[in-house]
């Protein structure tokens, strides 16, 4: 079963606007990661936030983590058409502490020029 | 794609035939993974490997087997392909803190 669940499933915005995607998960984690997938390509790692961190920045990306609510959010500021992609959260470790990630179903972001 | 090559990139096959997908890495990473991606289901783990000859099942392992005889190669076999195995298959390796690096994917159609 999926651990992470992204919300919304789809998001359409105009270039220059901010995009916020949310992820909820069920069990305790060591870290939470966000990945991007452009159409027809493999997933690409964006950012990792550890369970003892509350916020992390990387360029135009800001990730927050609330372990008490078992949720995370990804904010993309000043979006560009090139940000159009699907975004996935992934949590680890997997069941039994294994080196597995459990991925959510993703948020499809469309940035209109 | 971080030194990961999947082959073939596209394959069309018939129901009941065996199919083998190959993942090759040049990074010498210990952990390798096979996922399938389907609309509405996201990315689901099929099998993974934590070393040569060491493999374990994932969430959706029925109908699939894997082998890892060398660090760099991880093979996924569909023993008798079914239409429900039509999907896009991704291989991944993991580095520090289990950050995963993905191949470009194999699009498989089972007719």
The coarse silhouette of chain A is globular
The number of distinct β-strands of chain A equals: 11
The helix tally of chain A amounts to 0
pLDDT averaged over residues of chain A: 91
Count of DSSP helices of chain B? 0
Name the poorly predicted regions of chain A: none
Structural class determined from secondary elements of chain A: mainly beta
Report the structural category of chain B: mainly beta
What is the typical, i.e. mean, pLDDT of chain B? 94
Shape call of chain B: globular
Polypeptide structure, described:
- The complex is a heterodimer of chains A (113) and B (111).
- Chain A has strands at residues 5-7, 10-14, 19-24, 31-37, 43-50, 55-58, 61-66, 71-76, 85-92, 102-103, 107-112.
- Chain A contains no helices and eleven strands.
- In chain A, a hairpin with a 4-residue loop joins strand 7 (61-66) and strand 8.
- Helix content of chain A is 0%, strand content 54%.
- Chain B starts with a strand and ends with a strand.
- The mean pLDDT of chain B is 94.
Concise summary:
The complex is a heterodimer of chains A (113) and B (111). Chain A is an all-beta fold and 113 residues long.
Secondary structure topology:
The complex is a heterodimer of chains A (113) and B (111).
Chain A: E1 5-7, E2 10-14, E3 19-24, E4 31-37, E5 43-50, E6 55-58, E7 61-66, E8 71-76, E9 85-92, E10 102-103, E11 107-112
Parallel strand pairs in A: 2-11
Antiparallel strand pairs in A: 1-3, 3-8, 4-5, 4-9, 6-7, 7-8, 9-10, 9-11
Chain B: E1 4-7, E2 10-13, E3 19-25, E4 32-38, E5 42-51, E6 54-57, E7 64-70, E8 73-78, E9 87-94, E10 100-102, E11 106-110
Parallel strand pairs in B: 2-11
Antiparallel strand pairs in B: 1-3, 3-8, 4-5, 4-9, 5-6, 7-8, 9-10, 9-11
